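Researcher: We're teaching a course module on how sequence relates to structure. For the next exercise, students receive a sequence and then see the predicted structure as C-alpha cells, so they can try to spot secondary structure elements on their own. Here is the exercise chain.
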Amino acid sequence: MDFKKTHTLTDIAQILNCEFIGDASSLVKGMNEIHVVEKGDIVFVDHPKYYDKALNSAATTILINKRVECPEGKSLLISDDPFRDFNKLTKHFNPFISSPKSISDSAIVGLGTVIQPNVFIGNNVIIGKNSVIHPNVVIYDNTIVGNNVVIHANTVLGADAFYYKNRTEGYDQLISGGRVVLEDNVHLGASCTIDKGVTGDTTIKKGSKLDNQVHVGHDTVIGEKCLIASQTGIAGCVIIEDEVTIWGQVGTNSGITIGKGAVVLGQSGVTKSIAGDKTYFGTPISESREKLKELAQIKSFLKERKKCK
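Model: And here is the predicted structure for the students to work with:
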C-alpha cells in the first residue's frame, strides 16, 4: 500500500509514538506484507522466527519488537506490539470512510456498463467499459474492475482478509488496506467472494472465469485465462499461473503456487506448490495418474485380502 505522499522515518515514529534506529530523514513511501515489500516500504515482524526474513527483505524500514542490529541502509521502528502498530498505520493512511449512497460519488463507471438494481459501489471504485454488474453485488472501496467484465448476483468484492492474531482476550484482526483488481474480460459467477489484499492487491487477470460460490483469499493472484469451478476455496497469498483449470470443491493451502496449465480435479486438496502442464488429484495432492494407480493397488490388495479370508 503506497502512501499518498512520501514521509520521513521521524514522521512515522511520531504517528506510532515509538523509538527508531536509523537516519531520521530516510524516506518511507508505503507499507506492505513481507511477500510484496519493496524499497521504501515498512514491514512488520513480531516473532524471532521471522526476524532474519524481515531484516533481509526489500523493505527499508522494519517495525519490530526487539532491538537488533540494523542492516546497513535500513531503519528500525521499535514497538512493543508491531501487529497493533501496523494496524495503526493502516487506519492512519487508509481510514474507513462510510458511503451514504448505493453508488459513491467518487466511483467511476465506464461507458456502456450496466449496473443492475441493488448494487453497492464504494468509494474510489473504478469500473471499465461495457461491463455488467448484476443485482445485489457489493463492491468495496478502491476496487478496480476492467472492461467487459461480468459479475453475477450476490458476489462480494473487497471484504477483509481472514487474518488474525491470537491474544489472551480473543482474536485480533489485521486490518486490510489493500484492493481487489479484476482485469478485462473476467467473469465471476453468483455468490463469489473475493477478499482484498492486506496491503497489496488480490488480482484476477484478464480472461479468467470463476463459477458460482468461489472464494479467493487475500493477496492471491489468479493468472490469465484460468477456469475455476464451483465451491472452490483458494487461500490467501496463492499464485495461480496462466491457463490453470480447477474443478469443483477444490481447496488450497496459503502461500503456494499452481503452475501454468495445471489441471486440478474435483475435491482435491492442494497442500503444496505444484508444477504446470500436469493433471492432479487427491488429498494430499499428487499427479492424477499416480493417484489412480495407488487407488487401483489398494483396491486390488483389498480384493486379494477378501479372497484369503
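Model: If you want an answer key for the exercise: The chain has a mean pLDDT of 95. The domain at 2-93 is CATH 3.40.1390.10 (Udp-n-acetylmuramoylalanyl-d-glutamate--2,6- Diaminopimelate Ligase; Chain: A, domain 1).
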